[in-house]
Amino acid sequence: MPLPKAELHLHIEGTLEPELAFELAARNGVALPYAHTDALRKAYEFEDLQSFLNLYYELMAVLRTEQDFADLADAYLARAAAQGVRHAEIFFDPQAHLARGVGMGTVVEGLWRALGRSEETHGVSTQLIMCFLRDESAASAMETLEAAKPYLDRIVGIGLDSAEVGHPPVKFREVYEAAAALGLRRVAHAGEEGPPSYITEALDVLGVERVDHGLRCMEDPALVERLVRERVPLTLCPLSNVRLRTVDTLAEHPLPAMLDAGLLCTVNSDDPAYFGGYAGDNFDAVRRILGLTDERLRELARNSFTASFLAHDEERRAG
Ligand code: ADE
Ligand code: ZN
To answer: Considering the chain, what percentage of its residues have pLDDT values greater than 90?
Structure first.
């Protein structure tokens, strides 16, 4: 029986497995520049975040209808449930779809077809987090927030993703302020490839309650101390870090040191179709390669619920 856990860092577009990509391409008459699924899988050799993002955005061309988004989410939820996920807070990237002429309603209502009945069909509760692409302009993010207004009953919060370096959190100050005024929860990717100062900025300028990745905090002892003191959750993605070469090998991943430092770490899959594993696979990998004890794994699973939007703030502070 896999440990019950919450998944807090998962891009739904990153769950597009090659088989489903080809099925949707055929259904929608979209030509893919790969002969078959094995040829596509061979392209999953990444040098860094950008080389992954290029393929990630390219493959999204197959997602066109509400049913496509529903099928994508259903396939993820079935796999996640089989690996012990009981609650999932799911990112989506509307700007990548709007740019292709796929409307906000198609994306959100499509995802909701699967998410809205996920507790019955998969035993997984869900929430939806809308991400802004940080390599697009702040004005584009603001327009996206505006476009999401009719769907805010389906969206619990906002996030910030895509190419990090050169796009500091401060660029999105106004859109985060506007989202906060709408009652949306706030998270952001920071310290994946970008410097520790982006983590500080995400906390102080954007008011995030959770940091996605946050790996590079380890370069700044004062920041680590702050994150421990304020019990700021970090949504780590170990297999992603290896595939995107943020760490050289899993054996060198700082997760054990981060837990020893007292950081509120969680383990997640990021883009499981691309990085070789879903949430349970990430747990298995850190157990096998990093030698984490059962007690540490239970701590990670417990942290995932504590860090989720389901938890009350007092509960998080009390640990
Ligand atoms: N979009 C999808 N996966 C991402 C990641 N790991 N970092 C930034 N943006 C992303
Ligand atoms: Zn991510």
So the answer is: 97
* pTM exceeding the 0.90 threshold for the entire prediction: yes
189 annotated binding-site participant: yes
Query: Which residues have a Cβ under 8 Å from the Cβ of 43 and sit 6 or more positions away?
Result: 34, 55
State which residues form the domain around 103. 5-14+65-310
Pocket of ligand 1 contains residue 13 by CB under 6 Å: no
The model's pLDDT over 69-99, given as tens digits with 9 standing for 90+, comes to 999 999 999 999 999 999 999 999 999 999 9
Neighbours of 113 (CB within 10 A): 16
What pLDDT is recorded for position 246? 97
CATH code assigned at 145: 3.20.20.140
Ligand 1 within 6 A of CB of 270 = yes
- 239, 278 in Cβ contact below 8 A? no
3-state secondary structure of 213: strand
Task: Quote the tokens at residue 242.
Answer: 């290896």
In angstroms, what is the span from residue 128 Cα to ligand 1's centroid?
16
- Judged against a pLDDT cut of 70, whether residue 316 lies above it is answered with no
Question: For helices 279-290 and 294-306, what crossing angle results, to 10°?
Answer: 140
Nearest CA-CA partner of 158 in 192, 191, 182, 123: 182
Is residue 192 part of the annotated active site? The answer reads yes
212 lines ligand 1 (CB under 6 A): no
Q: Is residue 39 in a domain?
A: no
